[in-house]
Amino acid sequence: MAVYILKRLARLMAVLLGVTFLTFIITQAAPGDGAQMRYVSMGMIPSEELLEKTREEMGLNDPVLVQYVRWLGNALKGDLGESSKFGEPVLAQLTKKLPQTLKLAGTAMVAVFGVSLPLGILTAVKKNKCADYFVRVFSFLGISMPNFWLGLLLMYFFAVRLKWFRVVSANDGMGMVLPVAALAIPMVSGYVRQIRGALLEELSSNYVAGARARGIPERTIMLCHVLPNAMFSILTLAGLSVGSLLGGAAIIETIFSWQGIGNMVVEAIRVRDYPLIQGYVVWMAVIYVTVNLAVDVICRFLDPQTRLRGKVD
Amino acid sequence: MRKKWIRFSFFLALALLVTAMAFWGYRFAPYDPLETDFGAKLTPPGREHLMGTDNVGRDVFSRVLWGARNSFSLTFLMIILVSFMGTWIGMASGYFGGMVDAVLMRLTDILLAFPDTVFAIAVAGLLGPGLFNTVVALSFVWWTKYARLARGLANIIKTKDYITQARFGGAGTMKILVFYVLPNIIPQAVIMATLDVGGMMLALAGLSFLGLAAQPPAPEWGAMLYEGKSYMQTAPWIMIFSGLAIFITVMVFNLLGDSLRDLLDPRET
Predict the structure, then answer these.
(1) Binning pLDDT at 50, 70 and 90, where does residue B265 land?
(2) Residue B202 with chain A: CB contacts under 8 Å
(3) Strand-pair partners of A89
(4) Ranges A7-21, A123-137, A169-183, A270-284: which has the least confidence
(5) Is residue B83 pLDDT above 90, yes or no?
(6) What is the ipTM of this complex?
(7) Which chain A residues contact residue B119 at CB under 8 A?
Protein backbone atom coordinates (compact mmCIF):
# COMPACT_ATOMS: atom_id res chain seq x y z
CA MET A 1 0.00 0.00 0.00
CA ALA A 2 2.73 2.45 1.05
CA VAL A 3 4.75 1.55 -2.03
CA TYR A 4 1.71 2.11 -4.19
CA ILE A 5 1.08 5.55 -2.70
CA LEU A 6 4.73 6.49 -3.12
CA LYS A 7 4.65 5.34 -6.72
CA ARG A 8 1.56 7.39 -7.38
CA LEU A 9 3.07 10.41 -5.67
CA ALA A 10 6.11 10.17 -7.91
CA ARG A 11 3.83 10.06 -10.94
CA LEU A 12 1.91 13.02 -9.60
CA MET A 13 5.12 14.99 -9.34
CA ALA A 14 6.03 14.04 -12.91
CA VAL A 15 2.64 15.19 -14.17
CA LEU A 16 2.87 18.48 -12.31
CA LEU A 17 6.38 19.10 -13.64
CA GLY A 18 5.13 18.35 -17.14
CA VAL A 19 2.12 20.64 -16.86
CA THR A 20 4.10 23.54 -15.46
CA PHE A 21 6.82 23.09 -18.07
CA LEU A 22 4.28 23.01 -20.89
CA THR A 23 2.54 26.15 -19.70
CA PHE A 24 5.91 27.78 -19.26
CA ILE A 25 6.87 27.01 -22.84
CA ILE A 26 3.53 28.31 -24.10
CA THR A 27 4.00 31.54 -22.18
CA GLN A 28 7.30 31.90 -23.99
CA ALA A 29 5.54 31.56 -27.31
CA ALA A 30 2.90 34.09 -26.31
CA PRO A 31 3.08 37.58 -27.77
CA GLY A 32 4.55 40.31 -25.56
CA ASP A 33 6.88 39.52 -22.68
CA GLY A 34 6.99 40.23 -18.98
CA ALA A 35 9.02 43.37 -19.36
CA GLN A 36 6.55 44.85 -21.81
CA MET A 37 3.63 43.83 -19.62
CA ARG A 38 5.12 45.53 -16.63
CA TYR A 39 5.22 48.89 -18.39
CA VAL A 40 1.91 48.50 -20.17
CA SER A 41 0.21 47.84 -16.85
CA MET A 42 1.78 51.01 -15.51
CA GLY A 43 0.31 52.82 -18.48
CA MET A 44 3.48 53.79 -20.26
CA ILE A 45 5.19 52.89 -23.51
CA PRO A 46 8.81 52.04 -22.77
CA SER A 47 11.71 52.72 -25.09
CA GLU A 48 13.62 49.83 -26.58
CA GLU A 49 16.66 50.42 -24.31
CA LEU A 50 14.55 50.51 -21.19
CA LEU A 51 12.83 47.27 -22.26
CA GLU A 52 16.17 45.62 -22.86
CA LYS A 53 17.40 46.75 -19.46
CA THR A 54 14.28 45.44 -17.71
CA ARG A 55 14.52 42.16 -19.56
CA GLU A 56 18.06 41.78 -18.33
CA GLU A 57 16.92 42.62 -14.80
CA MET A 58 14.05 40.15 -14.87
CA GLY A 59 16.28 37.50 -16.35
CA LEU A 60 14.20 37.15 -19.49
CA ASN A 61 17.30 36.86 -21.65
CA ASP A 62 18.42 33.64 -19.99
CA PRO A 63 17.80 30.26 -21.65
CA VAL A 64 14.25 28.94 -21.23
CA LEU A 65 15.31 26.04 -19.06
CA VAL A 66 17.17 28.33 -16.66
CA GLN A 67 14.13 30.57 -16.45
CA TYR A 68 11.89 27.58 -15.82
CA VAL A 69 14.04 26.24 -13.02
CA ARG A 70 14.12 29.67 -11.45
CA TRP A 71 10.34 29.98 -11.76
CA LEU A 72 9.90 26.51 -10.29
CA GLY A 73 12.16 27.33 -7.36
CA ASN A 74 10.13 30.42 -6.64
CA ALA A 75 6.87 28.55 -7.04
CA LEU A 76 7.96 25.96 -4.49
CA LYS A 77 8.61 28.80 -2.07
CA GLY A 78 5.07 29.96 -2.75
CA ASP A 79 6.06 32.84 -4.99
CA LEU A 80 4.15 32.63 -8.27
CA GLY A 81 5.03 36.14 -9.34
CA GLU A 82 2.95 39.26 -9.27
CA SER A 83 -0.33 39.78 -11.06
CA SER A 84 -0.10 42.83 -13.29
CA LYS A 85 -3.87 43.35 -13.23
CA PHE A 86 -4.43 43.26 -9.51
CA GLY A 87 -0.99 44.49 -8.52
CA GLU A 88 -0.58 41.89 -5.83
CA PRO A 89 1.10 38.49 -5.56
CA VAL A 90 -0.56 35.79 -7.65
CA LEU A 91 -0.78 33.48 -4.67
CA ALA A 92 -2.72 36.03 -2.61
CA GLN A 93 -5.14 36.53 -5.51
CA LEU A 94 -5.61 32.79 -5.94
CA THR A 95 -6.17 32.03 -2.28
CA LYS A 96 -8.70 34.85 -2.11
CA LYS A 97 -10.73 33.59 -5.08
CA LEU A 98 -10.32 29.84 -4.74
CA PRO A 99 -12.70 29.30 -1.78
CA GLN A 100 -15.55 30.81 -3.79
CA THR A 101 -14.96 28.40 -6.66
CA LEU A 102 -14.58 25.44 -4.31
CA LYS A 103 -17.86 26.38 -2.66
CA LEU A 104 -19.59 26.47 -6.03
CA ALA A 105 -17.96 23.31 -7.37
CA GLY A 106 -18.44 21.44 -4.10
CA THR A 107 -22.13 22.23 -3.91
CA ALA A 108 -22.53 21.29 -7.56
CA MET A 109 -20.77 17.99 -6.89
CA VAL A 110 -23.10 17.17 -4.00
CA ALA A 111 -26.08 18.10 -6.15
CA VAL A 112 -24.81 16.01 -9.05
CA PHE A 113 -24.48 12.86 -7.01
CA GLY A 114 -27.52 13.55 -4.88
CA VAL A 115 -29.64 13.56 -8.02
CA SER A 116 -27.89 11.18 -10.38
CA LEU A 117 -27.41 8.31 -7.93
CA PRO A 118 -31.13 7.78 -7.21
CA LEU A 119 -31.97 8.34 -10.87
CA GLY A 120 -29.26 5.93 -11.95
CA ILE A 121 -30.61 3.27 -9.61
CA LEU A 122 -34.14 3.93 -10.81
CA THR A 123 -33.21 3.55 -14.48
CA ALA A 124 -31.19 0.42 -13.80
CA VAL A 125 -33.98 -1.24 -11.81
CA LYS A 126 -36.70 -0.21 -14.24
CA LYS A 127 -34.62 -1.03 -17.28
CA ASN A 128 -36.54 -0.48 -20.53
CA LYS A 129 -39.62 0.58 -18.61
CA CYS A 130 -41.35 3.91 -18.90
CA ALA A 131 -39.33 5.65 -16.19
CA ASP A 132 -36.08 4.46 -17.75
CA TYR A 133 -36.94 5.91 -21.15
CA PHE A 134 -38.14 9.14 -19.61
CA VAL A 135 -34.94 9.71 -17.65
CA ARG A 136 -32.81 8.66 -20.60
CA VAL A 137 -34.46 11.11 -22.96
CA PHE A 138 -33.93 13.88 -20.46
CA SER A 139 -30.34 12.92 -19.89
CA PHE A 140 -29.80 12.99 -23.61
CA LEU A 141 -31.16 16.48 -23.81
CA GLY A 142 -28.97 17.49 -20.87
CA ILE A 143 -25.76 16.19 -22.42
CA SER A 144 -26.27 18.14 -25.61
CA MET A 145 -27.08 21.31 -23.72
CA PRO A 146 -24.17 23.74 -23.64
CA ASN A 147 -23.78 24.72 -19.99
CA PHE A 148 -23.30 28.37 -20.86
CA TRP A 149 -26.58 28.43 -22.75
CA LEU A 150 -28.32 26.67 -19.90
CA GLY A 151 -26.85 29.27 -17.55
CA LEU A 152 -28.17 32.10 -19.69
CA LEU A 153 -31.61 30.48 -19.98
CA LEU A 154 -31.85 29.88 -16.24
CA MET A 155 -30.82 33.46 -15.64
CA TYR A 156 -33.33 34.75 -18.15
CA PHE A 157 -36.29 32.80 -16.80
CA PHE A 158 -35.61 32.85 -13.07
CA ALA A 159 -33.81 36.16 -12.64
CA VAL A 160 -35.03 38.40 -15.46
CA ARG A 161 -38.58 37.14 -15.97
CA LEU A 162 -39.67 35.65 -12.66
CA LYS A 163 -37.36 37.83 -10.57
CA TRP A 164 -36.79 35.01 -8.07
CA PHE A 165 -33.07 35.70 -8.03
CA ARG A 166 -30.86 38.69 -8.57
CA VAL A 167 -29.29 38.94 -12.03
CA VAL A 168 -25.85 39.69 -10.62
CA SER A 169 -25.38 37.01 -8.02
CA ALA A 170 -24.45 38.20 -4.55
CA ASN A 171 -21.98 35.39 -3.90
CA ASP A 172 -24.24 34.04 -1.16
CA GLY A 173 -26.40 30.96 -0.67
CA MET A 174 -29.35 32.27 -2.67
CA GLY A 175 -27.10 33.49 -5.46
CA MET A 176 -25.58 30.06 -5.67
CA VAL A 177 -28.75 28.27 -6.78
CA LEU A 178 -28.62 29.18 -10.47
CA PRO A 179 -24.88 28.71 -11.05
CA VAL A 180 -25.00 25.36 -9.29
CA ALA A 181 -27.97 24.28 -11.40
CA ALA A 182 -26.22 25.37 -14.59
CA LEU A 183 -23.13 23.42 -13.62
CA ALA A 184 -24.92 20.35 -12.32
CA ILE A 185 -27.66 19.66 -14.87
CA PRO A 186 -25.45 18.73 -17.84
CA MET A 187 -23.28 16.61 -15.54
CA VAL A 188 -26.23 14.83 -13.96
CA SER A 189 -27.33 13.83 -17.45
CA GLY A 190 -23.98 12.25 -18.17
CA TYR A 191 -23.75 10.51 -14.83
CA VAL A 192 -27.20 8.97 -14.85
CA ARG A 193 -26.17 7.11 -17.99
CA GLN A 194 -22.83 6.05 -16.57
CA ILE A 195 -24.23 4.97 -13.22
CA ARG A 196 -26.97 3.06 -14.98
CA GLY A 197 -24.34 1.31 -17.06
CA ALA A 198 -22.20 0.46 -14.04
CA LEU A 199 -25.18 -0.91 -12.12
CA LEU A 200 -26.47 -2.94 -15.06
CA GLU A 201 -23.07 -4.54 -15.45
CA GLU A 202 -23.08 -5.54 -11.78
CA LEU A 203 -26.67 -6.77 -12.01
CA SER A 204 -25.72 -9.18 -14.77
CA SER A 205 -23.02 -10.87 -12.69
CA ASN A 206 -23.34 -14.31 -11.16
CA TYR A 207 -23.55 -13.30 -7.54
CA VAL A 208 -26.75 -11.39 -8.24
CA ALA A 209 -28.30 -14.43 -9.85
CA GLY A 210 -27.18 -16.44 -6.82
CA ALA A 211 -28.68 -13.98 -4.40
CA ARG A 212 -31.94 -13.98 -6.35
CA ALA A 213 -32.00 -17.75 -6.34
CA ARG A 214 -31.67 -17.70 -2.57
CA GLY A 215 -34.71 -15.48 -2.43
CA ILE A 216 -33.05 -12.34 -1.19
CA PRO A 217 -35.30 -9.36 -1.87
CA GLU A 218 -34.37 -7.13 -4.82
CA ARG A 219 -34.03 -4.12 -2.57
CA THR A 220 -31.44 -5.84 -0.38
CA ILE A 221 -29.54 -7.07 -3.41
CA MET A 222 -29.45 -3.57 -4.84
CA LEU A 223 -28.54 -1.68 -1.69
CA CYS A 224 -26.28 -4.20 0.08
CA HIS A 225 -24.57 -5.98 -2.80
CA VAL A 226 -24.78 -4.23 -6.13
CA LEU A 227 -24.38 -0.64 -5.01
CA PRO A 228 -21.24 -1.16 -2.88
CA ASN A 229 -19.65 -3.05 -5.76
CA ALA A 230 -20.55 -0.39 -8.29
CA MET A 231 -19.37 2.29 -5.90
CA PHE A 232 -15.79 2.07 -7.08
CA SER A 233 -16.53 3.03 -10.64
CA ILE A 234 -18.86 5.74 -9.35
CA LEU A 235 -16.14 7.12 -7.07
CA THR A 236 -13.67 7.17 -9.93
CA LEU A 237 -16.27 9.03 -11.93
CA ALA A 238 -16.54 11.59 -9.16
CA GLY A 239 -12.80 12.16 -9.21
CA LEU A 240 -12.76 12.71 -12.93
CA SER A 241 -15.72 15.05 -12.70
CA VAL A 242 -13.64 17.50 -10.69
CA GLY A 243 -11.98 18.41 -13.98
CA SER A 244 -15.18 19.25 -15.81
CA LEU A 245 -16.46 21.08 -12.74
CA LEU A 246 -13.42 23.32 -12.59
CA GLY A 247 -13.50 23.90 -16.34
CA GLY A 248 -17.24 24.53 -16.35
CA ALA A 249 -16.89 26.86 -13.39
CA ALA A 250 -14.79 29.23 -15.50
CA ILE A 251 -17.66 29.70 -17.94
CA ILE A 252 -20.49 29.65 -15.41
CA GLU A 253 -18.76 32.10 -13.11
CA THR A 254 -18.45 34.69 -15.87
CA ILE A 255 -22.16 34.40 -16.62
CA PHE A 256 -23.26 34.86 -13.04
CA SER A 257 -20.44 37.24 -12.08
CA TRP A 258 -19.46 34.81 -9.36
CA GLN A 259 -16.22 36.10 -7.85
CA GLY A 260 -14.29 32.86 -8.16
CA ILE A 261 -11.10 31.71 -9.75
CA GLY A 262 -12.70 31.01 -13.14
CA ASN A 263 -14.05 34.50 -13.45
CA MET A 264 -10.67 35.77 -12.43
CA VAL A 265 -8.79 33.83 -15.10
CA VAL A 266 -11.09 35.01 -17.87
CA GLU A 267 -10.41 38.58 -16.74
CA ALA A 268 -6.70 37.78 -16.59
CA ILE A 269 -6.83 36.46 -20.15
CA ARG A 270 -8.44 39.68 -21.40
CA VAL A 271 -5.62 41.79 -19.99
CA ARG A 272 -2.87 39.22 -20.69
CA ASP A 273 -1.92 38.78 -17.08
CA TYR A 274 0.41 35.85 -17.69
CA PRO A 275 1.64 35.17 -14.13
CA LEU A 276 -1.96 34.92 -12.99
CA ILE A 277 -2.97 32.56 -15.81
CA GLN A 278 0.06 30.43 -15.11
CA GLY A 279 -0.69 30.33 -11.41
CA TYR A 280 -4.25 29.31 -12.22
CA VAL A 281 -3.10 26.40 -14.36
CA VAL A 282 -0.71 25.18 -11.70
CA TRP A 283 -3.36 25.28 -9.01
CA MET A 284 -5.97 23.57 -11.12
CA ALA A 285 -3.46 20.85 -11.93
CA VAL A 286 -2.60 20.38 -8.29
CA ILE A 287 -6.25 20.14 -7.24
CA TYR A 288 -7.28 17.80 -10.03
CA VAL A 289 -4.33 15.46 -9.72
CA THR A 290 -4.51 15.32 -5.93
CA VAL A 291 -8.23 14.60 -5.88
CA ASN A 292 -7.81 11.78 -8.37
CA LEU A 293 -4.92 10.35 -6.43
CA ALA A 294 -7.04 10.43 -3.29
CA VAL A 295 -9.89 8.67 -5.08
CA ASP A 296 -7.57 5.97 -6.38
CA VAL A 297 -6.07 5.40 -2.97
CA ILE A 298 -9.51 5.25 -1.31
CA CYS A 299 -10.79 2.79 -3.89
CA ARG A 300 -7.75 0.64 -3.42
CA PHE A 301 -8.05 0.82 0.31
CA LEU A 302 -11.72 -0.14 0.31
CA ASP A 303 -11.67 -2.74 -2.40
CA PRO A 304 -10.20 -6.03 -1.23
CA GLN A 305 -9.88 -7.21 -4.83
CA THR A 306 -7.46 -4.53 -5.96
CA ARG A 307 -5.64 -4.81 -2.65
CA LEU A 308 -4.96 -8.46 -3.28
CA ARG A 309 -4.09 -7.85 -6.90
CA GLY A 310 -1.58 -5.27 -5.73
CA LYS A 311 0.17 -7.93 -3.67
CA VAL A 312 0.34 -10.28 -6.62
CA ASP A 313 1.88 -7.60 -8.87
CA MET B 1 -29.71 -5.59 -35.51
CA ARG B 2 -32.14 -4.33 -38.11
CA LYS B 3 -33.61 -1.90 -35.64
CA LYS B 4 -30.13 -0.55 -34.95
CA TRP B 5 -29.52 -0.09 -38.67
CA ILE B 6 -32.73 1.82 -39.06
CA ARG B 7 -31.89 4.01 -36.10
CA PHE B 8 -28.41 4.68 -37.42
CA SER B 9 -29.62 5.47 -40.94
CA PHE B 10 -32.24 7.82 -39.58
CA PHE B 11 -29.75 9.80 -37.52
CA LEU B 12 -27.22 9.75 -40.32
CA ALA B 13 -29.80 11.27 -42.64
CA LEU B 14 -30.66 13.84 -39.99
CA ALA B 15 -27.00 14.71 -39.45
CA LEU B 16 -26.45 15.03 -43.20
CA LEU B 17 -29.48 17.27 -43.43
CA VAL B 18 -28.19 19.52 -40.65
CA THR B 19 -24.75 19.59 -42.25
CA ALA B 20 -26.20 20.46 -45.66
CA MET B 21 -28.21 23.22 -44.04
CA ALA B 22 -25.07 24.51 -42.38
CA PHE B 23 -23.08 24.62 -45.59
CA TRP B 24 -25.74 25.82 -48.02
CA GLY B 25 -28.31 27.39 -45.73
CA TYR B 26 -26.63 30.76 -45.81
CA ARG B 27 -27.81 31.18 -49.40
CA PHE B 28 -31.31 31.48 -48.07
CA ALA B 29 -30.37 34.11 -45.53
CA PRO B 30 -32.78 37.01 -46.07
CA TYR B 31 -30.26 39.65 -44.97
CA ASP B 32 -26.56 40.29 -44.96
CA PRO B 33 -25.30 38.93 -41.58
CA LEU B 34 -22.99 41.90 -41.11
CA GLU B 35 -25.30 44.63 -42.37
CA THR B 36 -26.35 46.94 -39.57
CA ASP B 37 -29.68 48.75 -39.51
CA PHE B 38 -29.99 51.00 -36.51
CA GLY B 39 -33.58 51.85 -37.40
CA ALA B 40 -34.55 48.22 -36.73
CA LYS B 41 -32.31 47.41 -33.76
CA LEU B 42 -33.55 45.02 -31.07
CA THR B 43 -36.68 44.15 -33.04
CA PRO B 44 -38.47 41.13 -31.54
CA PRO B 45 -39.01 38.09 -33.77
CA GLY B 46 -41.70 38.78 -36.33
CA ARG B 47 -42.51 38.55 -40.01
CA GLU B 48 -39.76 40.97 -41.06
CA HIS B 49 -37.08 39.34 -38.94
CA LEU B 50 -37.81 35.69 -38.21
CA MET B 51 -35.60 35.61 -35.12
CA GLY B 52 -35.50 39.32 -34.43
CA THR B 53 -32.51 41.62 -34.70
CA ASP B 54 -29.58 42.34 -32.43
CA ASN B 55 -28.28 45.51 -30.83
CA VAL B 56 -27.10 47.01 -34.11
CA GLY B 57 -30.03 45.81 -36.16
CA ARG B 58 -28.42 42.75 -37.72
CA ASP B 59 -30.86 39.99 -38.61
CA VAL B 60 -30.42 37.13 -36.11
CA PHE B 61 -31.82 34.48 -38.48
CA SER B 62 -29.27 35.36 -41.15
CA ARG B 63 -26.53 35.36 -38.56
CA VAL B 64 -27.54 31.95 -37.26
CA LEU B 65 -27.46 30.58 -40.84
CA TRP B 66 -24.06 32.10 -41.54
CA GLY B 67 -22.83 31.13 -38.14
CA ALA B 68 -23.69 27.50 -38.88
CA ARG B 69 -21.20 27.53 -41.70
CA ASN B 70 -18.45 28.89 -39.48
CA SER B 71 -19.20 26.63 -36.54
CA PHE B 72 -19.47 23.52 -38.70
CA SER B 73 -16.41 24.05 -40.83
CA LEU B 74 -14.36 24.78 -37.76
CA THR B 75 -15.66 21.74 -35.89
CA PHE B 76 -15.09 19.36 -38.80
CA LEU B 77 -11.68 20.83 -39.48
CA MET B 78 -10.69 20.34 -35.87
CA ILE B 79 -12.00 16.78 -35.72
CA ILE B 80 -10.16 15.82 -38.90
CA LEU B 81 -7.02 17.52 -37.66
CA VAL B 82 -6.92 15.93 -34.21
CA SER B 83 -8.02 12.46 -35.35
CA PHE B 84 -5.44 12.44 -38.14
CA MET B 85 -2.69 13.74 -35.90
CA GLY B 86 -3.57 11.51 -32.96
CA THR B 87 -4.02 8.37 -35.04
CA TRP B 88 -0.68 8.73 -36.79
CA ILE B 89 1.24 9.59 -33.66
CA GLY B 90 -0.38 6.78 -31.71
CA MET B 91 0.05 4.27 -34.50
CA ALA B 92 3.73 5.05 -34.92
CA SER B 93 4.19 4.97 -31.17
CA GLY B 94 2.52 1.59 -30.80
CA TYR B 95 4.12 0.05 -33.86
CA PHE B 96 7.71 1.08 -33.18
CA GLY B 97 7.61 0.95 -29.40
CA GLY B 98 10.79 1.69 -27.47
CA MET B 99 11.95 5.20 -26.65
CA VAL B 100 9.52 7.05 -28.93
CA ASP B 101 6.66 5.16 -27.38
CA ALA B 102 7.77 5.85 -23.83
CA VAL B 103 8.19 9.58 -24.42
CA LEU B 104 4.89 9.93 -26.26
CA MET B 105 2.95 8.01 -23.68
CA ARG B 106 4.35 10.10 -20.83
CA LEU B 107 3.29 13.18 -22.78
CA THR B 108 -0.25 11.87 -23.20
CA ASP B 109 -0.23 10.93 -19.52
CA ILE B 110 0.47 14.53 -18.63
CA LEU B 111 -2.16 15.90 -20.98
CA LEU B 112 -4.80 13.35 -20.01
CA ALA B 113 -4.13 13.94 -16.33
CA PHE B 114 -5.39 17.43 -16.76
CA PRO B 115 -8.91 18.78 -17.18
CA ASP B 116 -9.08 19.62 -20.89
CA THR B 117 -11.39 22.62 -20.69
CA VAL B 118 -9.15 24.28 -18.15
CA PHE B 119 -6.11 23.60 -20.25
CA ALA B 120 -7.74 24.76 -23.48
CA ILE B 121 -8.85 27.96 -21.78
CA ALA B 122 -5.38 28.49 -20.39
CA VAL B 123 -3.58 27.78 -23.66
CA ALA B 124 -5.97 29.96 -25.66
CA GLY B 125 -5.56 32.61 -22.99
CA LEU B 126 -1.80 32.49 -22.99
CA LEU B 127 -1.58 32.58 -26.77
CA GLY B 128 -4.12 35.37 -26.92
CA PRO B 129 -7.67 35.44 -28.27
CA GLY B 130 -8.19 34.47 -31.89
CA LEU B 131 -9.45 31.64 -34.04
CA PHE B 132 -6.06 30.27 -34.95
CA ASN B 133 -4.88 30.16 -31.35
CA THR B 134 -8.05 28.34 -30.35
CA VAL B 135 -7.41 25.72 -32.99
CA VAL B 136 -3.90 25.30 -31.62
CA ALA B 137 -5.13 25.14 -28.02
CA LEU B 138 -7.86 22.58 -28.69
CA SER B 139 -5.72 20.34 -30.88
CA PHE B 140 -3.09 20.47 -28.19
CA VAL B 141 -5.40 18.84 -25.64
CA TRP B 142 -7.56 16.75 -27.93
CA TRP B 143 -5.22 14.53 -29.99
CA THR B 144 -4.23 12.38 -27.00
CA LYS B 145 -7.47 10.38 -27.01
CA TYR B 146 -6.90 9.24 -30.57
CA ALA B 147 -3.24 8.58 -29.91
CA ARG B 148 -4.13 6.27 -27.01
CA LEU B 149 -6.69 4.42 -29.09
CA ALA B 150 -4.40 4.01 -32.10
CA ARG B 151 -1.48 2.96 -29.95
CA GLY B 152 -3.46 0.24 -28.23
CA LEU B 153 -4.74 -1.11 -31.51
CA ALA B 154 -1.35 -0.91 -33.25
CA ASN B 155 0.17 -2.81 -30.38
CA ILE B 156 -2.22 -5.69 -30.98
CA ILE B 157 -2.14 -5.52 -34.75
CA LYS B 158 1.64 -5.62 -35.06
CA THR B 159 1.78 -9.12 -33.60
CA LYS B 160 -0.73 -10.48 -36.12
CA ASP B 161 0.36 -13.01 -38.69
CA TYR B 162 -0.67 -10.91 -41.66
CA ILE B 163 1.86 -8.27 -40.69
CA THR B 164 4.63 -10.85 -40.63
CA GLN B 165 3.37 -12.18 -43.94
CA ALA B 166 3.40 -8.70 -45.42
CA ARG B 167 6.95 -8.25 -44.25
CA PHE B 168 7.97 -11.54 -45.85
CA GLY B 169 6.26 -10.34 -48.99
CA GLY B 170 8.70 -7.46 -49.05
CA ALA B 171 6.47 -4.65 -47.84
CA GLY B 172 8.31 -1.68 -46.33
CA THR B 173 7.44 -0.15 -42.98
CA MET B 174 5.49 2.68 -44.56
CA LYS B 175 3.50 0.27 -46.72
CA ILE B 176 2.70 -1.93 -43.74
CA LEU B 177 1.54 1.04 -41.71
CA VAL B 178 -0.64 2.50 -44.45
CA PHE B 179 -2.11 -0.69 -45.95
CA TYR B 180 -2.24 -3.12 -43.05
CA VAL B 181 -2.22 -1.27 -39.75
CA LEU B 182 -4.11 1.92 -40.52
CA PRO B 183 -7.17 0.27 -42.10
CA ASN B 184 -7.66 -1.69 -38.89
CA ILE B 185 -7.56 1.44 -36.77
CA ILE B 186 -9.79 3.63 -38.92
CA PRO B 187 -13.17 2.10 -37.94
CA GLN B 188 -12.56 2.68 -34.23
CA ALA B 189 -11.19 6.16 -34.90
CA VAL B 190 -14.29 6.99 -36.95
CA ILE B 191 -16.60 5.97 -34.09
CA MET B 192 -14.60 8.11 -31.73
CA ALA B 193 -14.63 11.04 -34.15
CA THR B 194 -18.40 10.79 -34.63
CA LEU B 195 -18.93 10.77 -30.88
CA ASP B 196 -16.58 13.73 -30.64
CA VAL B 197 -18.36 16.09 -33.02
CA GLY B 198 -20.81 17.28 -30.38
CA GLY B 199 -18.16 17.72 -27.73
CA MET B 200 -15.86 19.59 -30.06
CA MET B 201 -18.65 21.92 -31.14
CA LEU B 202 -19.44 22.63 -27.49
CA ALA B 203 -15.79 23.25 -26.67
CA LEU B 204 -15.39 25.65 -29.58
CA ALA B 205 -18.60 27.48 -28.76
CA GLY B 206 -17.55 27.66 -25.11
CA LEU B 207 -14.26 29.29 -25.99
CA SER B 208 -16.00 31.68 -28.37
CA PHE B 209 -18.44 32.45 -25.60
CA LEU B 210 -15.55 33.49 -23.38
CA GLY B 211 -14.39 35.75 -26.19
CA LEU B 212 -11.37 33.60 -26.93
CA ALA B 213 -12.15 32.03 -30.30
CA ALA B 214 -14.19 33.66 -33.05
CA GLN B 215 -14.05 37.41 -32.76
CA PRO B 216 -17.08 39.63 -33.25
CA PRO B 217 -18.57 40.73 -35.60
CA ALA B 218 -18.01 37.39 -37.37
CA PRO B 219 -21.22 35.35 -37.09
CA GLU B 220 -20.41 32.30 -34.98
CA TRP B 221 -22.81 30.67 -32.56
CA GLY B 222 -20.70 30.89 -29.44
CA ALA B 223 -19.68 34.46 -30.21
CA MET B 224 -23.33 35.36 -30.83
CA LEU B 225 -24.25 33.99 -27.42
CA TYR B 226 -21.48 36.10 -25.96
CA GLU B 227 -22.93 39.20 -27.61
CA GLY B 228 -26.49 38.22 -26.75
CA LYS B 229 -25.62 37.86 -23.08
CA SER B 230 -25.36 41.61 -22.63
CA TYR B 231 -28.78 42.15 -24.19
CA MET B 232 -30.55 39.40 -22.32
CA GLN B 233 -32.95 41.75 -20.59
CA THR B 234 -34.06 43.66 -23.68
CA ALA B 235 -33.47 41.14 -26.48
CA PRO B 236 -33.41 37.56 -25.16
CA TRP B 237 -34.03 36.18 -28.67
CA ILE B 238 -30.39 36.73 -29.64
CA MET B 239 -29.13 34.25 -27.09
CA ILE B 240 -32.13 31.94 -27.27
CA PHE B 241 -31.83 31.23 -31.00
CA SER B 242 -28.07 31.00 -31.23
CA GLY B 243 -28.03 28.64 -28.24
CA LEU B 244 -30.86 26.60 -29.71
CA ALA B 245 -28.84 26.15 -32.90
CA ILE B 246 -25.91 24.75 -30.93
CA PHE B 247 -28.16 22.56 -28.82
CA ILE B 248 -29.98 20.96 -31.76
CA THR B 249 -26.82 20.35 -33.75
CA VAL B 250 -24.95 18.84 -30.85
CA MET B 251 -27.91 16.62 -30.04
CA VAL B 252 -28.21 15.31 -33.60
CA PHE B 253 -24.52 14.40 -33.67
CA ASN B 254 -24.64 12.85 -30.21
CA LEU B 255 -27.54 10.67 -31.30
CA LEU B 256 -25.67 9.71 -34.46
CA GLY B 257 -22.54 8.81 -32.51
CA ASP B 258 -24.57 6.81 -30.03
CA SER B 259 -26.40 4.84 -32.69
CA LEU B 260 -23.15 4.17 -34.53
CA ARG B 261 -21.58 2.81 -31.37
CA ASP B 262 -24.61 0.65 -30.70
CA LEU B 263 -24.36 -0.69 -34.21
CA LEU B 264 -20.67 -1.54 -34.14
CA ASP B 265 -20.22 -2.38 -30.49
CA PRO B 266 -21.89 -5.66 -29.59
CA ARG B 267 -21.79 -4.93 -25.87
CA GLU B 268 -25.10 -3.80 -24.53
CA THR B 269 -25.06 -0.31 -23.06
Answers:
(1) low
(2) 146
(3) A82
(4) A169-183
(5) yes
(6) 0.81
(7) 281
State phi, psi for A89 to the nearest 5 degrees.
Answer: -55, 145
CB-facing half-sphere around the CA of B244: CA atoms within 13 A: 11
Neighbour count for residue B208 (Cβ, 10 Å) = 29
Residue B247: name the closest of A147, A123, A58 by CA: A147
Tens-place pLDDT, residues B108-142: 877 776 667 777 887 777 777 788 888 888 888 88
Compute CA distances A9 → A71, A75, A286, whole Å: 22, 19, 12
Those residues with Cβ within 8 angstroms of residue B234's Cβ, 6 or more apart along the chain or in another chain: B42
Cα–Cα distance for residue pair A198/A186, rounded to 1 Å: 19
Cβ contacts of B244 within 8 Å, gap of 6 or more: none
Tell me if the bond preceding B217 is cis, omega within 30° of 0. yes
Distance CA B232, CA A147 (A): 16
Torsion (CA) B45, B51, B53, B58 in degrees, nearest 10: -150
* Chain B environment of A146 (Cβ under 8 Å): 202, 205-206, 209, 243, 246-247, 250
Give me the DSSP letters along A238-263: HHHHHHHHHHHHHHHHHHHT--SHHH
Rounded-to-5 percentages of helix, strand, coil across chain A: 80, 0, 20
Chain B contact for A244, CB < 8 A?
yes
User: Helix-strand-coil percent breakdown of chain B, rounded to 5?
Assistant: 75, 0, 25
**In this structure, which amino acid lies at residue A47?**
S
Compute the average pLDDT of residues A164-172: 69
Q: Which residue of B has its CA nearest to A20?
A: B110
State whether B246 and A149 contact (CB < 8 Å).
yes
Tens of pLDDT, residue by residue over B164-178, are 888 888 888 888 888
At what angle are helices B131-157 and B60-96 packed, to 10 degrees? 40
The pLDDT of residue A41: 63
Cβ-based contacts of A269 with chain B (< 8 Å): 121, 124-125, 129, 210, 212
Q: Does B186 touch chain A (CB under 8 A)?
A: no
